[in-house]
Amino acid sequence: MQSIDEAGLVRRLDEAAEAAARRIDLLVQVDLAGETTKHGATEEALAAIFEAARSARACRCVGLMIIPPAVDEPEAARPYFQALREVRDRLLARGVDASMLQELSMGMSHDFEVAVEEGATLVRVGTAIFGGRTYV
After folding, report:
1. Tens-place pLDDT, residues 105-127
2. Which pLDDT score, from 0 to 100, does residue 128 have?
3. 62 CB contacts (<8 Å, ≥6 apart)?
4. 27: β partners
């Protein structure tokens, strides 16, 4: 699974996947915090991304993902998880095909319980399984 944040990237990945005779599932990374250190599409950019995904042949959009600001207290991430679920609900109400919004990838090792409470279908728990990273 790959994360994308712009319509042009959907098209480039689709071309590359088709040329390689591969299928790729995509998650749209959404930026709800406006952090300059992270990537993600604004809610306004999502219409163009889903339009590009509708015409893709080798790529399939399967949902949304978010990486909220780093917080010590898991509850502090809850508003971001709620907001992503609300974005998904607005997209469904605007007619985006439900098959393109099956997944909500949100939550990591320290806050996955809160993310699941808010509707996460995918969580990233590598640190809980493998331990922390050592940066050199």
Report:
1. 998 877 889 999 999 998 886 55
2. 58
3. 1, 25, 26, 27, 99, 100, 102, 103
4. 3, 63
Residue 75 confidence (pLDDT) above 70: yes
Alpha-carbon span 104 to 19, nearest angstrom: 29
Nearest to 104 by CA among 94, 95, 116: 116
Dist. CA 104–CA 120, nearest whole Å: 5
Distance CA 78, CA 2 (A): 24
pTM for the complete prediction? 0.87
Q: Which tokens belong to 105?
A: 């990838």
Sheet of 59-65, strands arranged across:
2-4, 24-29, 59-65, 103-108, 122-124
Place of tokens 């990374």: 29
pLDDT score, position 107: 85
Select from 6, 1, 53, 48 the least CA-distant residue to 22.
Answer: 1
